[in-house]
Every structure is written in structure tokens, then in C-alpha cells.
Write a structure and sequence with these properties.
about 10% strand; Engulfment and cell motility protein 1; apoptosis; phagocytosis; single chain; about 50% helix; SH3 domain binding; 26 helices
Length: about 675
């Protein structure tokens, strides 16, 4: 039979004796178990003893954690936490450097256990350690010339014990003096300092800043980012990690008025380049803690955009309206007219026309578009950055879309606003960093204006995807969903630079996204299960018939097409539809575009379906083989078709205009 659940079989060690195998009854008080163990080895005063886990942690067994003991665990009988704390409290004050060093080493190890830490702190141990740092350092430094390794170890173990004790959260950070802060900051500011001492000092400064607003101000007076930069230029990744952690802490706790100044320092090419070359592109692989600190720095930097993101535009603010005027001037410089030319109504009409071409929702007063938060004024900032720093791309996007038919144009203004909002969501602008996230992107450390450059790449992607999807204004949300997927998939690949990110996006066309989606669906276990396959096979004929009927219904409804000549498009139309009995194609010319269906009996020309001998598509169409036709129509060649009867009616479908275009010739 298995032993009762409350009985745990363990081995217990005692120095100088053979280990004992015991069955511990978890219902009995821990003190009774310790007493039983002591009696087995004829040890008196059982209250001065305790049990520890016999592994590298050496954690004490208490009533709170005793249920963690498992069958087969190895325990150790040792002195109680109180007795150990008293002994170490006395030993670290020894006049012998060797004895003091050994005691501090033991203290650093023991301080990881919260049970011991509580006892040592109750003996005013924290105050003793800070006094040793404040006043004892000078005495240690006198010995540094003759005992340099010993000095480094003494200070290192002192600071390690201090950090371990404080990490338990028992003592408030607000209790420390300015003298202690100055000492710790002095170790960080020294050009040549023991690595272990420097690491502990940086850890202490980070904790001070994060846990006390008052200490933040005191630390900020002693430490500047400029003084921390040399520590990033070394090769020790732990030192680099703690240095960036201190920078993040100073950044996070800085008052609003100082945060922008810090951001300016962080955005400077020197610091960014040092982090990029010495940390991100270092031969040493980035560990999880460094990745987390880089992620935190990335988040804090982007969070500086929150103010602009949550700021509405004031339609009456002339300075803000001038930015919109600047966008118009750059895009339509050749079309601008001086203010003193023409009537006010004419100028208003001209502005309205241009604002419509720029893709604003409100053509009369586009400032209203930027009253939505988020993204507020941040969207306008991005648009202006694109117009000034990537002027060719900006003008190409605006003019390319303004020359399209209204139904197919990609509205630059609306797209920029929604894209900025999307990018803020992707980068979680305004949210505090997650404690366990390591998701930093190296490319954001390669440019001083990384968010703006990110936007410039993505707005060009949006315009490209819009064309690939042959989208209309009704497809706006669908296009944004595809663009979001393209961006997320490219970011998942962790490109090292913005150029690499742009290259990855080039490979993620709309067609490729559809292929990926289909592949992912096909690879899903449920999709390949036998019931699904059987169901698909069963309903496929019904689905194919449904598709056939839908297409026939669409042919019966008919479509209006623009007529074109060999020179230019004409404002004439013709209509084609299938008869209700599906036997005849009716078509004929119209004077204007109809508002609804055109009755088939009003269309003069007919083409019996039975007379159709063949249907030719693409560049093989006869009218595409004419001299210069294929060269001029490469874009729409794949959309062409020819219906071959006694005469050949050649049809060219142009995806870049409001409707399809029929081009009729006799072969």
C-alpha cells in the first residue's frame, strides 16, 4: 500500500554523522520534528536548530513552505536562522580581514533566504552594512594598494548581501542617507572599478530609483546618462544590462518636464550607436535579461509619442492649420495659386478639390480629421515627416491616387490617420512595459526618428497593397487588416534594419498573404481530419452549383462599360447582359451611365451563346497582338479576353479605372 499522503520519506544530514532516513508526519509541528531529529543525534537545545533544503539554495524549512518537501528530498540539520544571524552579525565586525571576508561571503549566500534575512534585519544588520560602506570604505581603500583583490571582494560581498537583503522588501528604501547614495554613485562613476562592485552598485541605484521618488532625485543629482555611457562600451554583458536598467529606471521615474530632455539624450546618435554596435550587434548572444531591458527602453522611448497621440487638433489654431497647408503646397506646388488671385469662393473650391485629392474625410476643413484620439496630432506629424523627408514618395502616392477614379483611389489622409493608430497599437504606445516581455526590435535602434521612418515604410506598403487588392473605398477596413498582418509577420522575423524590414515587406505581397493563410488553414489538424474531408467532398457539388448560379445571375444583371478609342477615353458607355434564358448576350450603346439595370429588350445588338466558338484570354487576345498594344497595356493584358464567333469581340478589362472597359474590334 502507498504511504499516507501526510507522510514524507526524506534523508537528513548532520556534519560528521551518517545521514538518517526518516518519515516526516506533516501533521506534526515542525518544532516537534526538529526535536525528534536532535534527540536522534543526542543534541540538546533543539530550539537552536532548524532544517534546510540540502541544495544550492540552502533555504530554511518553515511552517509556510514545509509542504514543498517531496518524497526522496535531502534535508540538512543546521543552526537556526536567529543563531546564524547573530553569529554572522558578530563575524562581519571582526578585525581580521580574512575572517571578515569569509563572514561577508557567508552572509551574501545566507541573505537569499527570507527567513534568515528577517532575523538579520531585526538585528539592525542593514544599518551595519550601510555604515561599513559609508565609513569603512576609506579604511578598505588604504589596504587596496597591498590587498587589491581582498578589497574588491570585501566590498563586493558587502554590496551583494545588501542587495539580497533589500530584495525581500522588508526594509523601505527611503531610509538611506545621502552619504550612502554618494558612495554607491561614486563606485559607478569611477573609471576603473571591480566588475562585481560595479554590477552591485548599478543594481542598487536601479532599485533606489524604482522604489523611491525621493531617492530618484538624489540619484539623478549624482548620476547622468553621460557618465553611464562608458559602461556600455565594454564587453561585459551583465554590466551593460545593469547600465541600461539604470537608464530605464531614470527614464521611467523622471518627471514629465525632464522626460523629454532625457528622450533627446537617448535619441542622440552617440548613445543609440553605442547600444547598437556594442550591445545589439555584439558577437555575444543577447541573453533574456538584456533583451528585456532593450524592450523596456524601446517601450519607454515610444511612450514619448503618447502626448501627441492623445492631443486633438484645434481647427482654429493657425499654426496647426499651416501644417495642412504645407502638405498641400508640397503635393500640388505647380497647381497652387497666390492668395490674391481670384475670388474667395474660387480659392475655397480649389482648396476643397486639393484636400479631396489628399484623401481627407472632411474636404472643407481637414483639421477636423485630426480631432480623433488616438492618433490625434501624431498622424499629422507623420504625414509632414513623410512630405519633408521622403518628398518623392509622398508626391507619388498623392498624385497617383488623385489621378484614379474616385472609387479606386487610396485616400492618403484617411489612410495615414488609421495607419498611425494601428502602429501605436502594434507598438503599444502609452502602455507600461511588461515585466516578462523580451520583444525588442533591433531596427528601431538604427535611426534617430525610427517611428516616423516606420510609418513612411508602412504607408507605402498600404498604398501598394491597396493596388494589389484592387480595393475600393468600401474595402478600406479589409485593406487595413491585410496591412496589419503584413507588418506583424515582417516584425516577427526581427529585421536588423529598417531597410531589411522594407525588404521583408516586399516579399509579403497580398498574393503571398493569401497563400500563407491558405497554407495555415490546410495545416490545421481539424481541417485535415477525416470528418472534415468527408463533409467537404459531400458538399462540394452543391457549392460548385451555387457558384455557377451566382455567376449566371451576375451576367443576367449586366454591367455598364466605358467605351475607349485608340487615342483616349470617351464619355460614352455600352451595356451588356445575358438573357433570362441564358441563350443570348444583349448589348448596345448608351448616352450616359445608367443608375440601375438596363432592360434587355432596349439593347439593339444580340450575340447567341450557341455561336461562341472559343474564349481567348490574356496576351493571346487578337487586339493585344496589334503593334504597340501589348506595350501600352502590360498592366491590363492579363485581364483581357476575346469571344470568338464569326466576328471576334475583344474585351479588355482595365482594373485601374472605375469600371471595366470593353474594346471592340472585328477580326
Amino acid at each position: 500500500m502507498p504511504p499516507p499522503a501526510d507522510i514524507v520519506k526524506v534523508a537528513i544530514e548532520w556534519p560528521g554523522a551518517f545521514p538518517k532516513l526518516m518519515e516526516i508526519d506533516q501533521k506534526k509541528p515542525l518544532s516537534a520534528i526538529i526535536k525528534e531529529v536532535c534527540e536522534g543525534w543526542s543534541l540538546g537545545s533543539h530550539e537552536n536548530f532548524a532544517l534546510q533544503i540540502a541544495d544550492s539554495t540552502n533555504f530554511y524549512i518553515t511552517e509556510k513552505n514545509r509542504n514543498d518537501i517531496k518524497n526522496g528530498s535531502i534535508l540538512r540539520l543546521t543552526t537556526s536562522p536567529y543563531q546564524t544571524a547573530v553569529q554572522l552579525h558578530e563575524r562581519i565586525q571582526s578585525s581580521s580581514m580574512d575572517a571578515k571576508l569569509e563572514a561577508l561571503k557567508d552572509l551574501a549566500n545566507a541573505s537569499r533566504d527570507i527567513t534568515f534575512a528577517q532575523e538579520f534585519i531585526n538585528l539592525d544588520g542593514i544599518s551595519l552594512l550601510t555604515q561599513m560602506v559609508e565609513s569603512g570604505t576609506e579604511r578598505y581603500q588604504k589596504l587596496q594598494k597591498i590587498m587589491k583583490p581582498c578589497f574588491g571582494d570585501l566590498l563586493s560581498f558587502t554590496l551583494t548581501a545588501f542587495v539580497e537583503l533589500m530584495d525581500h522588501g522588508i526594509v523601505s528604501w527611503d531610509t538611506f542617507s545621502v552619504a550612502f547614495i554618494k558612495k554607491i554613485a561614486g563606485y559607478v562613476n569611477k573609471s576603473a572599478m571591480d566588475i562585481a562592485v560595479l554590477q552591485r552598485s548599478l543594481a542598487i541605484l536601479e532599485s533606489m530609483v524604482l522604489n523611491s521618488q525621493d531617492l530618484y532625485h538624489k540619484v539623478a543629482q549624482e548620476i547622468t546618462i553621460g557618465q553611464l555611457i562608458p559602461h556600455l562600451q565594454g564587453t561585459d554583458q551583465d554590466i551593460q544590462t545593469y547600465t541600461i536598467a539604470v537608464i530605464n529606471a531614470l527614464f521611467l521615474k523622471a518627471p514629465e518636464e525632464k522626460r523629454q530632455d532625457m528622450a533627446h539624450i537617448l535619441a542622440q546618435k552617440q548613445l543609440r550607436s553605442i547600444i547598437l554596435s556594442n550591445v545589439i550587434r555584439s558577437p555575444t548572444p543577447i541573453n533574456d535579461e538584456m533583451a528585456h531591458q532593450l524592450y523596456v527602453l524601446q517601450v519607454l522611448t515610444f511612450n514619448l509619442l503618447e502626448d501627441r497621440m492623445m492631443t486633438k487638433m484645434d481647427p482654429q489654431d493657425q499654426a496647426q492649420r499651416d501644417i495642412i497647408f504645407e502638405l498641400r503646397r508640397i503635393a500640388f506646388d505647380v497647381e497652387c495659386e497666390p492668395n490674391n488671385g481670384g475670388s474667395t469662393e474660387k480659392r475655397k473650391s480649389m482648396y476643397t478639390r486639393d484636400y479631396k485629392k489628399l484623401g481627407f474625410i472632411n474636404h472643407v476643413n481637414p483639421a477636423v480629421d485630426f480631432t480623433q484620439i488616438p492618433p490625434g496630432m501624431l498622424a499629422l506629424d507623420n504625414m509632414l515627416y513623410l512630405a519633408r523627408h521622403h518628398q518623392d514618395a509622398y508626391i507619388r502616392i498623392v498624385l497617383e491616387n488623385s489621378s484614379r477614379e474616385d472609387k479606386h483611389e487610396c485616400p492618403f489622409g484617411r489612410s495615414s490617420i488609421e495607419l498611425t493608430k494601428m502602429l501605436c497599437e502594434i507598438l503599444k504606445v502609452g502602455e507600461l512595459p511588461s515585466e516578462n516581455c523580451h520583444d525588442f526590435h533591433p531596427m528601431f535602434f538604427t535611426h534617430d526618428r525610427s517611428f516616423e521612418e516606420f510609418f513612411c515604410i508602412c504607408i507605402q506598403l498600404l498604398n501598394k497593397t491597396w493596388k494589389e487588392m484592387r480595393a475600393t473605398s468600401e474595402d478600406f477596413n479589409k485593406v487595413m487588416q491585410v496591412v496589419r498582418e503584413q507588418i506583424m509577420r515582417a516584425l516577427t522575423l526581427k529585421p536588423n534594419s529598417l531597410d531589411q524590414f522594407k525588404s521583408r515587406l516586399q516579399n509579403l505581397s497580398y498574393t503571398e498573404i493569401l497563400k500563407i493563410r491558405q497554407s495555415e488553414r490546410m495545416n490545421q489538424e481539424d481541417f485535415q481530419s477525416r470528418p472534415i474531408l468527408e463533409l467537404r467532398e459531400k458538399i462540394q457539388p452543391e457549392i460548385m452549383e451555387l457558384i455557377k448560379q451566382q455567376r449566371l445571375n451576375r451576367l443576367c444583371e449586366g454591367t455598364c462599360f466605358r467605351k475607349i478609342s485608340s487615342r483616349r477615353r470617351q464619355d460614352k458607355f455600352w451595356y451588356c447582359r445575358l438573357s433570362p434564358n441564358h441563350k443570348v448576350l444583349h448589348y448596345g450603346d448608351l448616352e450616359e451611365s445608367p443608375q440601375g439595370e438596363v432592360p434587355h429588350d432596349s439593347l439593339q445588338d444580340k450575340l447567341p451563346v450557341a455561336d461562341i466558338k472559343a474564349v481567348i484570354t490574356g496576351k493571346d487576345c487578337p487586339h493585344m497582338k496589334e503593334k504597340g498594344a501589348l506595350k501600352q497595356n502590360k498592366v491590363c493584358a492579363r485581364m483581357c479576353l476575346s469571344v470568338c464567333v464569326c466576328v471576334c469581340v475583344c474585351v479588355c478589362l482595365d482594373t485601374w479605372v472605375e469600371s471595366m472597359i470593353f474594346h471592340v474590334k472585328v477580326c
